[in-house]
Amino acid sequence: MSNNAIREIVWQLVSSIPKGRVASYGQIAAMAGYPSYARFVGSVLKDLPQNTSLPWYRVINAQGKLSFPVDSMNYKRQRLLLESEGVVFVAQKISLKEYLWAIKIHLYKPSVI
Questions:
Q1: CB-based contacts of 64: which residues, under 8 Å, 6+ apart?
Q2: Which helix (H) or strand (E) holds 94?
Q3: Which residues are within 8 A (CB) of 9 and not within 5 positions of it... i.e. 6 or more apart?
Q4: Which residues contact 70 (CB under 8 A, 6 or more apart)?
Q5: Which residues contact 37 (CB under 8 A, 6 or more apart)?
Q6: What are the domain boundaries of the chain?
Q7: What does the pLDDT read at residue 102?
Q8: Which of 4, 21, 26, 30 has its CA 20 to 30 A from that of 101?
Q9: 52: alpha, beta or left? (left if phi > 0; alpha if psi -120 to 50)
Q10: Tens digits of residue pLDDT in 59-76
C-alpha cells in the first residue's frame, strides 16, 4: 500500500478518536494495519495544515505524555485543547488507564474491487 493510502487511513482513524479520549501513535499505526509505523503517524500529523479540523491533539506518546517540549507553544496548545475536553494531566502526564481510546483493534483491510 502506498504512503498516501496509509496517510488517509491515519486521518480517518484520528478523526474517529472521541472527544475526551486519546490514542497513542503506535495505537493508530496498529489500527491502520502497520504496527511499526508509529513515527510515520507522527510525521503525518506534523505535516497537517495549521487550520486543520482533524483532532491531531488527541494523539500522544505511549507513556501518556505529549511529544512536544514542555515549554513550547505547541505543548501548551495541545495541552489546552485536551484539557478543554476534560482530559486531566498529573505531572505532565495523562492516565492512559482513564483516557485511552479503548476499542477493539480491527486491522484495516482494503476492499478488493
A1: 93, 94, 95, 96
A2: strand 93-94
A3: 32, 33, 108
A4: 92
A5: 6, 29
A6: 3-99
A7: 82
A8: 4
A9: beta
A10: 999 999 999 999 999 999
**Rounded Cα gap, residues 16 and 77, in angstroms:** 21
Q: At residue 100, what are phi and psi to the nearest 5 degrees?
A: -65, 135
Contact 35, 21 (CB under 8 A): no
Q: What is the pLDDT of residues 36-49, one digit of tens each?
A: 999 999 999 999 99
Residue 92 grid coordinates: 505532565
For the record, the C-alpha cell of 68 comes out as: 512536544
Alpha helices in the chain (DSSP H): 3-16, 25-31, 38-46, 73-84, 96-99
Tell me phi and psi for residue 98, to 5 degrees.
Answer: -90, -35
The CATH code of the domain at 3-99 is: 1.10.10.10
Residue 65 burial by CB count (10 A; 0-12/13-18/19+): exposed, middle or buried? middle
Where the chain has pLDDT below 50, the residues are: none
Helix (H) or strand (E) holding 13: helix 3-16
What does the block give as the cell for 57?
A: 491533539
